[in-house]
Amino acid sequence: MRRALGHGGFVAGAVLVLAFLAAALAGPLLPGPDPLAAAPERALLPPGPDHPLGTDAVGRDLAARVMAGARLSLLVGLLARLVSLAVGTAAGLLAGYQGGRTDAVIMRLADMTLAFPALLLLIAIVAAFGPSLVTLFLALGLLGWAPVARVLRSQVLALRHVEYVEAARALGAGRTRILLRHVLPACSSTLMVLFSMGMATAIIAEGSLSFLGLGAQPPQPSWGTLIRDGFEYLRSAPWLTLVPGACMALAVLGFNLLGDALRDLMDPRSTRAVAP
Amino acid sequence: MRAIRPAAWPALLALVLSAACSGQAPEDGTFRTCVSEEPQSLDPAFAVDQTSGTLVSLIYPGLFRFDPDGTPRPDLAKRWELSADGTKYTFHLHADRRFEDGRPIRAADVVRCCRRLLDPDHPSPRRWVLERLAGAVEFRDGRSDALPGLAAPDDSTVVLRLASPFSPFPGLLAMPATRIYPACEDGTPARAGGLPVGGGPWRLAEWRPGDRFRLDRRAPAAPGEFTHLELRVIPQPFTAVAEFEVGNLDLLRVPLAEVGHWLDGEWSDRVLRREELVVSYIGLNVRRPPLDDHRVRQALNYAVDVEALIRTVRARAARRAHGPVPPSLRGPDPDESFRYRPERARALLAEAGYADGFEIEIWQKENPEVSRLLEAVQAYLAEVGVRARIVVRDWGAFKDAVNRGSADAFFLDWLADYPDAENFLVPLFHSANQGGGGNRVGYADAYTDLLLDELQGTPPGPARRVLVDQLNAMIYREAPWIWLWHPVSLQVLRRGLSGYEPPVIFNGQDYLRVRRDAAIPDA
Amino acid sequence: MRRFLTHRLLALAPVLLGVTFLSFLLLYVVPGDPVQAVAGERYDEAVLAELRAELHLDDPLLVRYGRFLGGLLRGDLGRSYVTREPVAERIAATFPNTLRLALAAMAVAVVLGLGLGIAAAARPGSWLDRAAMVMASLGISVPVFWLGMVLILFFSMRLRWLPPSGFGEGSLRHLILPALTLGAGSAAMVARMTRASLLEVLGQDYIRTARAKGLHPARVLLVHALRNALLPVVTVIGNDFGSYLSGSVLTEKIFAWPGLGRYTLEAVAKRDLPAIQGAVLVMALVFVGVNLLVDLTYAWIDPRTRRGPA
Question: At the topology level of CATH, where does B278-488 sit?
């Protein structure tokens, strides 16, 4: 832990992520304007004492909306990523280690998922089941499993014949035990990178759906919908898109820094590599 | 060879790029504008969307053609007469008009194209346009091979007879569906090299799917007038703005979010305003309780401050709607108006037994401008206890739900097919047109139907005007919609050009009179 | 190697079948009806039924799928329900444009991503590393549509260097902004993956041996380490290239690029099944092809994996 606190990237990443998580969680508890309360008479006010970040085109407080957006974007990103990682890791480990028919079937399924145009699949799912929070993170999550599985599989393939795995097998360890005790930890750095990058991908995928109007449902804001809606006013009220845009960039930056730092800290080999 | 210093690279790059990108308007006589979608079909019988209708109207001739102000002007006919009983239209065609393949356009061509629109073997969604011809219904249903309402006594005369008088009929003959084209064996429009063989003011010279259309002028050009027309397909309004500012477009529709920028900036003197023959509304499905109670529907109208919405989300680019019929097609506004009176709304709701409000879903197709509007409406409705949920669906799912009547309420625009009050009344409120016919709120009232039927047969004149105003006022008070507005389109024309008038109907501009002014050099 | 190839080609059929059937099934579940697009805003209800009959839309799902497969075997993708044009024609017109955009985006990803990644891994912890990684983070933290519009705003509207949109006459200038927009995300991903796997490889024994032998650090990095660090990078590029073909939807929309993505998007909105099927099939084919290349590259870079899928 001391080592972690001395790691600049870790501290910066953790601060950013915690700040956004805190904003997302504390938002509804704070006294302040209702993020959903439209009032056309107050539309497009510049930042000022009543509205620190100004108001949007229907007069809602942007600060409150950005906080509410944090909640939705982070939640969708997190849940979607957990679904992807859980499914993808299981599939990747199994495929890489087991090989043969299992590998073939899993990889063909992954191919199918990847080969199907993701955005079209999302649009179709959202059109069929309606764009609820659950639809969003399940759809985004299930779409994300295949790349995870493939990356992990390639790792496992390389690891399968590494000495300590062979040794464990020779000692008669079971498949599950080998996978969980020996193979999975060796993939942890990859998983960290996949998680941190994947959070970003999921948050942004939600934004892409928002661009097509199929993300968060009005009047609930997500960063994606805020950025998209605000963009039209770039020349008259630039804060509408710049503020949520900066939030999204910073949050993703935070996750990336954290992921990198964790990778450095947890993987002994990479520590050696970093050492001069 | 000495390497270029790194610091010089950006400058070099800039030089190369800027040399290649002049951003100047070409001087080759091309007028450049854009559409937002690909056309669905350049076959007039299937040209149901705006882009298709626009293109079809440029490429093909017809008996009539809309002026920018919506007047149907004779096109192929040099002269026409209407019989005293209002049912028989006789057209005398120009002798010198030809299709692109050089064939003269004869009366038989008009008959052939009109017949095909009604042909039961090739169901056209636009067959309603000619269903008023005598014998059209029997012909359409396959019960008769004859179509007595359609005749070509000689090469240059066409006679159209209606089953009953219908004064807006010339407008129907200016619609995309009634264009005249040379045909293949199976009746579909002839093509050469993959492009339609037309006969209208412009010839489609090049079509790059998803990218652009290039049209060459067929009609003679006066000095300064454009000899080419380029229609870019640009789905994103922001992109169109960029293209205009860079100088790659000559005409721009200003997006709502940018109205201030254009009205106050350097282009303010170039902005053209036009109140279009369009009505925007929130349809209230009168088949679904509690919206079946007119007091509830009226309450919703009192609850929403439409004037404030026009000032804000519409950026003042709209005129408040008092009933479905645009002001230019009717008399004065109805007396009793739904001004913003939330207390009245609450009282009406209480009277109807909904003192605690209720929940409704308002559907919209994906569009950020509409989302902003509905979010504001949602807030107004919440003030009187009505909890509205906005349901955004993609175009296909939205259309399906609205046409089948499974949405409580929905936002839509209605665009005129032809400039007549009838077009804003009969399709939208006649009980026979429920669903895809236009009456998506399921409005069904025997007395209204009676008056609508009477309206269709009434010739232009004071009686018709009274009837229109009566219907408009009656429906207005019944409030099957939340009455919003008639949009005003704001379009910017590049400096140095003139002669462009924004059309009130989407296919009402033929670009023939747009010209480059010789006196003022292009800025 | 031949066995490997045969195996992969045989695996192609189930993937393509699965993908086309999935899109069939999805369109069946999703509400909406292509004849409503054909019919427009005002029609009599009877015409809908006639149009449905004419387009055989009332046949059972499997019959329709069977007809699609039958057509496919004859090399016929059918006609669009909405435009009534042969689907293959439109795909032939738009697909090359999307491919062009995807290849350009991949070039951006490889050049920018590898460059940044190697630079960062060469001196881990240095300011160069930090800067490269911040750039990489920003690259993926900006939504595609936002990046695209900002690029237009800056390079087209402000600087007037590049055209804002369109295909032009196929010039490179029209390609630059959309390619940057589409490729930025994977450039960032490639940069991070390159750095991560380079650092991992650099820690391994053989590299230390190479270093101990006194080889030049750059040579160690580029020749010995990079080759082995390329595996995950190749995967990323392979994955992303497939997604460019479908994921270019937003880029194509913003830049008014006449590609397959926009065509498919419109087809989805109108529930134009033959068009969707054709597009999905082409995208899947390309994806599978790219994957095959990726796997071959794998086998070439790291012979150990050759034994894998056998």
Answer: Dipeptide-binding Protein; domain 3 (3.10.105)
